[in-house]
Design the sequence.
C-alpha cells in the first residue's frame, strides 16, 4: 500500500485566495483525520470522519475552513479565503479504528504558506 | 486548552546514553497513550503505545512508562542512536476517539 497520500506537498498562495488540500487514505481504513501542526499549538485536530461521515469538526478554526469526504478514498480540506495565520503544515491521517491496531498512518503533509 | 503537555521543547543526548522524554496529561479519562516519531518533511509515525492497565511497555530500545496517579508518562530510549534524532509526540486517547497530541519534543542525539 502506498500509504496516506496528500497533495500538494507545498502550497504558496496569496491572502484571500482559496486553497484546497487533498488526501487519499489507506484502503480499508474507516477513519480519517485532518491535523494542523504549528509551533505554538503542536498537532491539533481539525476534523474527524468515520465511515465518510464528519464526527467532530469542533477543531475547525472558523467558517473559512471546510472539509468533505465524498467517498472512502478521498477527502478535501478547503480554506476560503486564506489568511497568513493559516500558514502551517496540514496532515491527513487514517486508521482502522481498532485499539489493538491503533497507529494512525499519517501522510507526509502539505506545507501551506499564505503571503 | 492543551490536555497533553510536553514541557521540554528540545533535548540533546550523547550517542549511547539514555534519552528520556516526558509527557503529562490532564484528562483522567484518557486510557491509551502513544508515542509518535517525526522526521523533517515526513508525517509522524507510530512508535510505541501503552494501555492504562499497564505501567510499562517495552519494544526493543524503546520503553514507555505510565504513572497514572501522577498523570505522567515517559519514553526511554536506550541506547540512543543518531538516527533517533527526530521530534517525538506524545498522544492520548479517550475510548477510541481522536488522539490528543502534545506539542512535541525535538531530540538530538550527538555522536
Sequence:
Amino acid at each position: 500500500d502506498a500509504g496516506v497520500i496528500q497533495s500538494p506537498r507545498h502550497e504558496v498562495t496569496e491572502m484571500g485566495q482559496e486553497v484546497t488540500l487533498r488526501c487519499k487514505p489507506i484502503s480499508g481504513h474507516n477513519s480519517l483525520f485532518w491535523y494542523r501542526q504549528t509551533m505554538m499549538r503542536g498537532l491539533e485536530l481539525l476534523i474527524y470522519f468515520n465511515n465518510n461521515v464528519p464526527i467532530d469538526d469542533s477543531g475547525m478554526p472558523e467558517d473559512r475552513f471546510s472539509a468533505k469526504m465524498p467517498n472512502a478514498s478521498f477527502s478535501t480540506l478547503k480554506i476560503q479565503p486564506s489568511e497568513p495565520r493559516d500558514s502551517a503544515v496540514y496532515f491527513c491521517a487514517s486508521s482502522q479504528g481498532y485499539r489493538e491496531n491503533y497507529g494512525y498512518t499519517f501522510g507526509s503533509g502539505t506545507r501551506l504558506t499564505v503571503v | 486548552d492543551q490536555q497533553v503537555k510536553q514541557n521540554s521543547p528540545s533535548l540533546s543526548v550523547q550517542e549511547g546514553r539514555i534519552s528520556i522524554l516526558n509527557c503529562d496529561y490532564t484528562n483522567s479519562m484518557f486510557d491509551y497513550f502513544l508515542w509518535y516519531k517525526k522526521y523533517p518533511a515526513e508525517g509522524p509515525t507510530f512508535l510505541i503505545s501503552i494501555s492504562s492497565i499497564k505501567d510499562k511497555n517495552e519494544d526493543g530500545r524503546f520503553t514507555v512508562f505510565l504513572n497514572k496517579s501522577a498523570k505522567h508518562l515517559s519514553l526511554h530510549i536506550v541506547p540512543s542512536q543518531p538516527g533517533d534524532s527526530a521530534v517525538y509526540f506524545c498522544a492520548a486517547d479517550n475510548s477510541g476517539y481522536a488522539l490528543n497530541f502534545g506539542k512535541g519534543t525535538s531530540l538530538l542525539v550527538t555522536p
Q: What stands out?
A: The first strand of chain B starts at residue 4 and ends at 5. DSSP finds no helices and eleven strands in chain B.
